[in-house]
Amino acid sequence: MISSKLPDIGTTIFTVMSKLALDHNAINLSQGYPGFDTYLYLKDLVDEYMQQGYNQYAPMSGVPQLKRRIASKVLNIHDVEFDPEEEVTVVSGATEAIYAAVTATVRQGDEVIILEPAYDSYAPAVRLNGGIPVYVPLNIPDFSVDWQKVRDAITVKTRLIMVNTPHNPCGYVWTQEDLNQLAEITRDREIYFVSDEVYEHIVFDGRKHLPLLSHPELREKTFSCGSFGKTFHITGWKIGYCLAPRPLSIEFRKIHQFLTFSTSTPMQYALAEFLEDPSRYLFLNQFYQDKRDLFCEGLEQTPFKFTPSQGSFFQVVSYAHLSNEGDFDLAIRMTKEIGVASIPVSVFYHDKKDHKLLRFCFAKEDDVLEQALEKLQKFTF
Fold first, then answer.
1. Where does the Aminotransferase class I/classII large domain lie (predicted)?
2. Looking at the structure, do residues 335 and 188 belong to the same domain, yes or no?
3. Does the residue 47 lie in any domain?
4. Which uninterrupted H or E stretch holds 124?
5. Can you tell me whether residue 281 is helix, strand or coil?
6. CA distances from 217 to 180, 212, 222, 260, 296 (A)
7. CA spacing 20 to 30 A to 63: which of 23, 121, 134, 183?
8. Is residue 126 part of a domain?
């Protein structure tokens, strides 16, 4: 009998709710993936490279052309220079990047600060590497960071802080003040950062995504993890990347080469060519803001309370003023009774703290969102 390293971990809520949605023919606004296909031209490029014979292992750190495009993107948007050969690594999804960065950094007994609610892969990655998660709650209702609480959580054992902006599940986007506060409280300490920025191009209302790598102090200690999945509607391709200074990238690649070694070759070449046109990611924010606005306009006709998401695919709503029903129970009941699946936000807390919040994914076709809103408007508590 195997002694489990994660005895308390079962099937993820995303799998549970997606299956429930399928079983009840419900509109699935639970799992965070786009409800529409990627660009035809991008698919054609993959086919072209496959037909040309680019079907064997890619270089361990990534196809050079793609690494150069990623470095150019960062330079053009944030005016920060990375050596594409030494400091950019292509991996099989941002989740792999996060795991490799944690593994490269965390040793037995090290403490890792996780801001909650948090994406569900962070704590397991820490625990599997012998680390100790230290949970710090975000402010409700806006999910901003309480920097005094972060300061109080830091000890001599703190090795790493997990950062996520734009935030999943709650859509908060970090400000320059957030970056400055993080730099101040970690100055002269050997504390590193794993920054999950997969929604970097999906920010709203004129906000600007500010990656940790844009801050001179933070850059030297940051593994910046990104993904093409959310940017180009290709979550099933599982192609991500990590930008980090050379000393950090060296250790990161030592882990990466024994996790997946390399990532899909024809897809990397296709993405490198697709990235030649910056407009394909620079104007993505408006595409998703239109969907957020449509969804929020419809939510105004429901009894839920909410503040429009600042970024990401997600909108969180509160029903605390309406009911004491547990969010997990409510999410299941709504899926069965009205045919709309969501995610209970309590699953993003280690202790399942229930603030009576649900998360909806609005990265769907407009007609699907309208159908879901019609159902939500008829729901009664």
1. 26-376
2. no
3. no
4. helix 122-128
5. helix
6. 9, 9, 9, 31, 38
7. 121
8. yes
E-strand ranges in the chain read: 27-28, 88-91, 111-116, 132-137, 158-164, 192-196, 222-227, 240-243, 314-318, 340-341, 343-344, 357-361
Note the pTM of the prediction, 2 decimals: 0.96
User: Measured on CA atoms in the order 161, 100, 216, 156, is the torsion positive or negative?
Assistant: positive
Q: Which of 245, 280, 315 is the last residue of a domain?
A: 280
- Count of alpha carbons within 13 angstroms of residue 194, beta-carbon side: 28
Residue 25, by phi and psi: left (phi above 0), alpha (psi -120 to 50) or beta? left
What are the pLDDT tens digits along the chain (381 aa)? 889 999 988 878 888 899 999 999 999 999 888 999 999 999 999 999 999 999 999 999 999 999 999 999 999 999 999 999 999 999 999 999 999 999 999 999 999 999 999 999 999 999 999 999 999 999 999 999 999 999 999 999 999 999 999 999 999 999 999 999 999 999 999 999 999 999 999 999 999 999 999 999 999 999 999 999 999 999 999 999 999 999 999 999 999 999 999 999 999 999 999 999 999 999 999 999 999 999 999 999 999 999 999 999 999 999 999 999 999 999 999 999 999 999 999 999 999 999 999 999 999 999 999 999 999 999 988
E strands, 129-210, where?
Answer: 132-137, 158-164, 192-196
Contact 379, 298 (CB under 8 A): no
Contact call for residues 14 and 29 (beta carbons, < 8 A) = no
Give yes or no for a contact between 149 and 137, defined as CB atoms under 8 angstroms apart.
yes
298: Cα separation from own chain's centroid: 25
Closest residue by Cα to residue 368 from 332, 328, 339: 339
CA distance 207 to 189: 30
- Domain range holding 356? 13-31+283-378
Q: Answer yes or no: do 166 and 257 share one domain.
A: yes
Which DSSP letter does residue 303 get? S
> d(Cα 50, Cα 104) in Å, to the nearest integer?
33
Question: What is the count of structural domains for the chain?
Answer: 2
Strands in 87-126 per DSSP E: 88-91, 111-116
